[in-house]
Amino acid sequence: MLSIVSIKSRNSRLSKRVASIQDNTAVAATAVVDISEIIRQISEIQSNIAVAIDQQSMTTREISRIVAEAAMGSSTIASSIFQVAEEAKSALDEVGEASQGALDLSHMSNELNQLVAFYR
What we know:
Order of helices and strands: H
Radius of gyration: 51 Å
Distance between the termini: 173 Å
Largest sheet: none
Helix content: over 70%
Mean pLDDT: 92
Number of domains: 1
Organism: Granulosicoccus antarcticus IMCC3135
Structural class: mainly alpha
Protein name: Methyl-accepting chemotaxis protein
Shape: rod-shaped
Strand content: under 5%
């Protein structure tokens, strides 16, 4: 049979093991709490990143829209400048024709003056 000392010794070792297990369980529980907090922080960071990406996407779409509008405006301006250049060329051609007409009239006037002077 087991002696009382042997039983006390076993109970003491068993108590120490139970205490050790309880200590390890407390450490593990603290680690689980710490890990849960880290997971919560990671989740919060991921949410913030998702919001930032969404905002960046919206900003990029808006910039693209503005650039497209600017391109259309530039195209309209270029077309208007081309039309003005065409009108200026046409006006210059007409001024040239008018100048030639005035020169022709001047020559005719000189010829008429010479004929009038001849018959006087």
